C-alpha cells in the first residue's frame, strides 16, 4: 500500500544513483509489520499501528485517528531542517493528490508539513497492491482491471497531474475497485522542471523518452499503464533484467509478448507501449476504446487533435454507433459518463483480501478465549496504557510480576498485538483507539489510570529500596490512592505488592497519628501550666493595681475632708477663699464633707469681705441711712 518503494534516480539517462531494479519494490504484506526502533508511536493526534511499507523516500504507516478511524500516514525520510526541499516535495504531493478525484485514488485527509516530521494523512484503502495480490488476471476480469486503471489515469490527467510512477505497487485493489496512489514524484502540468535531466521513477515502468532525458508527460503514464496491464496478465515485470543497464535496454528496444493478452487488450496495450510518445493514445482515448470495445488501437485517434470526438472510430462496420450514450447533443464526448462507466467496471474487479483492522483482530482474539480468560483481558490491557497528569493517553510497559495469574493464555491469544517479553508492551500502539472494547475500558477507568500509574511506580520503588517508610504515600496522595482503590476501580485489580504498599502507607499514617496525638496531649498540658502561671501573674498585677487605686482614693478623700473643714473656717473671714476651698475639696474627692462645704458656700449671703485700711482707735464708722455704704 506504500507505492514509493525502490525508486531510482538517473541523470541524462546514463547513471543510476540508487539501488537497481531488483530492489524496486517491497512486497506489500496483507497486514502491516510492527514498528521498529526509531519509529514514532504517534504523529499529532494519530496513533500508529505498524508499517505498511518503506522505501528511499519515506515510510507509510497504518494509523488511527482519535475517533478510531483507520488511515494511512506517509512520513518522509531525511532531516527536513537540513533539506528544505523535503517539505516542498511533500507539499507538492499533497497538492497533486488533492487535485485528483477521490474515486480513483486515496483521498488526502490531513497534513502537517511544518512539524519536525512532516507527514500526509490519507484514506486507508483496504486491500493489497496489484503486486502483493500474488495472482494473475485474465479474460473479462483483466479487461475490467485495465479499464479501471485507465479511468483513474484519465481522472489524474484531467486534473492536470502527471503521476510519473505508475506501477503495480501503486495500484491498490480496494473493495470498491482499483485505486492509484502515491503522488510522491508527481507533478502538475504548471510545474517547471527545476533540475534539468534529473528524473525519478521505477526503471521497468519508465517510458523510453524519460531514459533519454526528456520530461515525463502524460504519454509516460500511458506507457506505464501498458506495462502494468501486462504485469497483471503474467505476474511478471515486462522489462525485467538482472541489472539496470539490462532493464534500460529492454525498455528502449524490446517488445513484450502480447499474445498473453486477450484480443480486446492487445491493441490498446501495443499502442500504449509504443516507443515514440507521439504514437501513444491519451488516457482518455484508451478509456474510450476499452469502454466501447474497440480493440483496434494500433494508431488510435478516437479523439481529434482539437479535442472533439472523432466519430468514425466509434462506428461499427454496419454503420451503427457502438456507444451512443457517450455522445453529447453537440457531438462532443460526455467525459463524466465515460468516467462513470470506467468506475463501474472497476467495482466488478473482485480480489479476495484479508486486511482486517486492529479492532477486528483484537475482537476475534477476545472472542476465541474461554470466559474465565476473558476476565483477565481488561486486567492486561489496562496495565499497558495510562493517562498522564495532563490527561493524555500514553503507553506503559508493565513488568510480568504486575500481571495477574493465568495471563500467559491471554498473551498467547494476542501475539500480533502484545509482546510476551518482560516487560510486556503493545506491539501496535494504536490499539487503544482502534479496538472499541478497549476504548470503553479506558474511558470507564480513565480518571483512575493516572492514580494507578502513580501507585504502580511508587510500589515498584518501594519494593526495590527495601520497603522504606520514606517511599510510602502520605497526606492527600495517600487519600486519593486509597479512595480509588476502595471505590473507584472498574477493571483493574491491585497486585499483592500494590496492596501491601497502600496498606503500609495507611499503617504508617496511623502510627504517625498516634504519635501526633501523644505529642499534642503533652503540648496541651504544657499549655495549661503556662496559662495557669500567666493567670496568676495577671491576678497579682490586677490586685496590686486595685490596692494602689484604693489607697489613692482614701488619700484623696482625706485631703478633700481637710479642705472642706478649712473652707468652713475661712468663710466667716473671707467668703471668696472659703468658696474656692470648697470647690477644690469637691474636685479632689466627692466626700460628704466636700458636698456640705459646697452647699454652705452657695447658701452664704456674703460674697466678699471689706478690710478697713485705717484701723486706728480713734476711727469710728457708720452706715448711711440706705445702708449702701460706710461713713466716718
From TrEMBL:
Keyword Transmembrane helix among record annotations: yes
SMART domains: S_TKc
Domain Protein kinase: 46-302
Gene Ontology terms for molecular function: ATP binding; protein serine/threonine kinase activity
Name of the protein this chain belongs to: Protein kinase domain-containing protein
Pfam families to which the protein is assigned, alphabetical: nSTAND1, Pkinase
InterPro entries associated with the record: Kinase-like_dom_sf, nSTAND1, Prot_kinase_dom, Ser/Thr_kinase_AS
Entry keyword set: ATP-binding, Kinase, Membrane, Nucleotide-binding, Transferase, Transmembrane, Transmembrane helix
Top-rank taxon, per record: Bacteria
Transmembrane segments: 518-539
CDD domains: STKc_PknB_like
Amino acid at each position: 500500500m506504500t507505492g514509493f518503494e525502490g525508486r531510482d534516480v538517473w541523470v541524462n539517462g546514463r547513471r543510476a544513483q540508487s539501488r537497481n531494479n531488483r530492489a524496486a519494490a517491497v512486497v506489500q504484506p496483507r497486514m502491516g509489520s510492527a514498528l521498529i526502533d526509531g519509529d514514532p508511536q504517534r504523529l499529532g493526534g494519530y496513533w500508529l499501528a505498524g508499517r505498511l511499507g518503506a522505501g528511499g523516500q519515506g515510510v507509510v504507516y497504518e494509523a488511527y485517528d482519535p475517533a478510531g478511524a483507520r488511515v494511512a500516514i506517509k512520513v518522509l525520510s531525511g532531516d527536513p531542517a537540513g533539506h528544505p526541499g523535503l517539505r516542498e516535495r511533500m507539499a507538492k504531493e499533497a497538492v497533486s493528490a488533492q487535485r485528483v478525484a477521490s474515486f480513483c485514488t486515496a483521498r488526502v485527509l490531513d497534513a502537517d508539513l511544518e512539524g519536525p516530521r512532516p507527514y500526509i494523512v490519507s484514506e486507508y484503502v483496504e486491500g493489497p497492491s496489484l503486486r502483493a495480490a500474488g495472482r494473475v488476471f485474465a479474460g473479462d476480469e483483466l479487461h475490467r482491471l485495465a479499464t479501471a486503471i485507465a479511468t483513474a489515469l484519465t481522472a489524474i490527467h484531467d486534473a492536470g497531474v502527471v503521476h510519473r510512477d505508475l506501477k503495480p505497487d501503486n495500484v491498490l485493489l480496494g473493495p470498491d475497485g482499483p485505486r492509484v496512489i502515491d503522488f510522491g514524484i508527481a507533478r502538475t502540468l504548471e510545474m517547471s522542471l527545476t533540475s534539468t535531466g534529473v528524473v525519478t521513477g521505477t526503471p521497468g515502468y519508465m517510458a523510453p523518452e524519460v531514459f533519454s532525458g526528456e520530461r515525463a508527460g502524460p504519454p509516460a503514464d500511458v506507457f506505464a499503464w501498458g506495462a502494468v496491464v501486462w504485469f497483471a496478465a503474467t505476474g511478471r515485470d515486462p522489462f525485467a533484467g538482472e541489472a539496470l543497464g539490462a532493464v534500460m535496454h529492454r525498455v528502449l528496444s524490446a517488445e513484450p509478448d502480447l499474445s498473453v493478452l486477450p484480443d480486446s487488450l492487445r491493441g490498446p496495450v501495443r499502442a500504449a507501449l509504443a516507443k515514440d510518445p507521439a504514437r501513444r493514445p491519451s488516457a482518455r482515448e484508451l478509456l474510450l476504446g476499452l469502454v466501447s470495445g474497440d480493440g483496434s488501437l494500433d494508431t488510435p485517434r478516437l479523439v481529434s487533435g482539437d479535442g472533439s470526438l472523432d466519430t468514425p472510430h466509434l462506428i461499427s462496420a454496419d454503420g451503427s454507433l457502438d456507444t451512443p450514450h457517450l455522445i453529447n447533443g453537440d457531438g462532443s464526448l460526455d467525459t463524466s459518463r465515460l468516467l462513470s462507466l470506467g468506475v463501474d467496471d472497476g467495482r466488478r474487479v473482485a480480489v479476495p483480501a484479508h486486511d482486517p483492522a486492529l479492532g477486528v483482530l483484537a475482537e476475534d482474539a477476545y472472542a476465541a478465549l474461554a470466559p474465565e480468560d476473558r476476565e483477565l483481558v481488561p486486567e492486561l490491557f489496562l496495565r499497558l496504557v495510562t493517562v498522564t497528569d495532563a490527561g493524555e493517553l500514553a503507553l506503559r510497559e508493565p513488568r510480568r510480576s504486575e500481571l495477574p495469574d493465568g495471563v500467559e493464555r491471554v498473551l498467547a491469544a494476542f501475539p500480533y498485538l502484545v509482546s510476551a517479553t518482560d516487560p510486556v508492551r503493545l506491539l501496535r500502539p494504536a490499539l487503544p483507539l482502534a479496538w472499541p472494547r478497549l476504548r470503553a475500558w479506558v474511558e470507564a477507568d480513565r480518571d483512575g489510570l493516572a492514580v494507578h500509574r502513580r501507585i504502580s511506580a511508587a510500589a515498584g520503588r518501594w519494593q526495590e529500596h527495601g520497603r522504606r517508610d520514606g517511599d510510602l504515600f502520605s497526606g492527600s496522595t495517600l487519600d486519593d490512592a486509597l479512595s480509588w482503590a476502595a471505590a473507584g476501580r472498574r477493571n483493574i485489580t491491585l497486585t499483592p505488592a500494590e496492596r501491601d504498599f497502600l496498606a503500609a502507607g495507611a499503617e504508617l499514617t496511623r502510627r504517625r497519628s498516634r504519635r501526633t496525638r501523644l505529642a499534642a496531649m503533652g503540648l496541651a498540658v504544657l499549655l495549661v501550666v503556662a496559662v495557669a502561671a500567666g493567670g496568676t501573674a495577671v491576678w497579682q498585677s490586677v490586685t496590686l493595681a486595685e490596692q494602689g487605686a484604693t489607697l489613692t482614693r482614701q488619700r484623696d478623700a482625706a485631703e478633700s475632708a481637710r479642705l472642706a473643714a478649712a473652707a468652713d473656717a475661712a468663710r466667716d473671714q473671707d467668703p471668696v477663699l472659703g468658696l474656692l476651698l470648697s470647690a477644690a475639696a469637691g474636685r479632689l474627692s466627692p466626700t460628704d464633707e466636700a458636698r456640705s462645704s459646697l452647699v454652705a458656700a452657695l447658701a452664704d449671703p456674703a460674697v466678699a469681705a471689706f478690710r478697713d485700711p485705717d484701723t486706728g482707735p480713734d476711727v469710728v464708722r457708720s452706715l448711711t441711712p440706705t445702708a449702701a455704704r460706710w461713713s466716718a
